[in-house]
Write a structure and sequence with these properties.
It is built from eleven helices and 13 strands. By secondary structure, the chain is an alpha/beta fold. The strands form three sheets. It has a five-stranded mixed β-sheet with strand order 3-2-1-4-8. The relative contact order is 0.15. The model has no long low-confidence stretch (mean pLDDT 93).
Length: 310
């Protein structure tokens, strides 16, 4: 059986056919997204796809409530209390599955791991990019929570008191531990500390440093850059530690821009966790980077479709 997967973005929408072995059969050229509640344009394109598929699985940004079948808020799409499933069913008789895009990415990463090792059942995904999001997979199934909002790891709690958050709650981990926040701290240090390697690189570049500008320092365990990253990641590490005690996962997957450091990301996070988590909980826990890039959401959409038999 094949499933048509759709990644609905604010700028473009992407399409792929995925089979039940976790293989992407075919990708299609992205099309420009149209804003507004009328999705006829989307299904007009879908009708041009000739490959056979049994279901359509669509992932969307923002807060999707699977109970009400409604997108509560998706600012990039200008969706507020939008009954997306009802709108989609106007244009097709196919079974349609809707899920959040971060959850889709988490499921996709999980599925690929489980294909290699079926004993893996419990996975946490953290996406460390502009913000901090994630997904919870328990016993091989996506845990969406009562209203579909599970996985919003970047918000709530009292993980730091240094930087306010745009969500209106001042103690969230996101404004301190996102990739955006980490590189912002690195640039602030570079500007404030003359005669340092970071300041020299900032001066030479004549614009803000990015991760690519400091990756060699991270790979060589430069004391300054590693300590800056540890300082930024402290709220995130505290959050992960709580989740380890709560869910006892097999694997923690790190996605987003921060994972570009490769094995150094995995080592740094596990080393910091070892300071605040009991050794027996870390003994069989794997911390690894996401491996499927932009394909993860397609794979996760398909997986959700395959396990949803109704």
């Amino acid at each position: 059986m094949n499933i048509l997967t759709v990644e609905r973005g604010g700028t473009t929408s992407k399409f792929a056919i995925v089979n039940n072995n976790g293989k992407i059969i075919k990708k299609y050229d992205p099309i420009k997204s149209q804003l507004g509640h009328d999705l006829k344009w989307l299904f007009d394109y879908i009708k041009t796809i000739k490959e056979d598929y049994a279901k359509i699985s669509i992932c969307v940004p923002g807060f999707y409530n699977p109970v009400k079948k409604m997108i509560i808020v998706a600012g990039n799409l200008q969706y507020y209390n939008f009954k997306i499933l009802e709108e989609c069913q106007k244009y097709t008789n196919k079974k349609i599955i809707i899920l959040n895009d971060a959850n889709a990415a988490g499921l996709g990463e999980y599925w690929k791991l489980a294909i290699k090792n079926p004993e893996i059942k419990n996975v946490l995904l953290y996406t460390i990019g502009t913000g901090v999001g994630g997904a919870v997979i328990l016993n091989g199934k996506l845990h969406e929570g009562s209203n579909g909002y599970a996985g919003e790891f970047g918000h709530g709690g009292n993980f730091q008191n240094d930087v306010s958050c745009t969500c209106g709650i001042n103690n969230c981990l996101e404004p301190k531990s996102s990739a955006f926040a980490i590189i912002k701290l690195i640039n602030h240090y570079a500007q404030s500390n003359l005669s340092t390697i970071l300041n020299q690189r900032l001066t030479q570049k004549k614009q803000a440093l990015e991760f690519v500008d400091v990756i060699d320092l991270i790979q060589n365990n430069d004391y300054t850059i590693i300590n800056l990253i540890k300082e930024s990641l402290k709220p995130l590490i505290e959050h992960i530690s709580i989740m380890i005690y709560a869910f006892n996962p097999d694997v923690i997957i790190i996605g987003g821009g921060f994972s570009s450091f490769g094995i150094h990301t995995e080592t740094l996070i596990k080393n910091e966790l070892s300071k605040i988590v009991a050794p027996f909980l870390l003994e069989n826990l794997e911390v690894k980077n996401a491996e499927n890039g932009n394909d993860a959401a397609f794979l996760g959409c398909a997986y959700q479709g395959f396990i949803n038999e109704a």
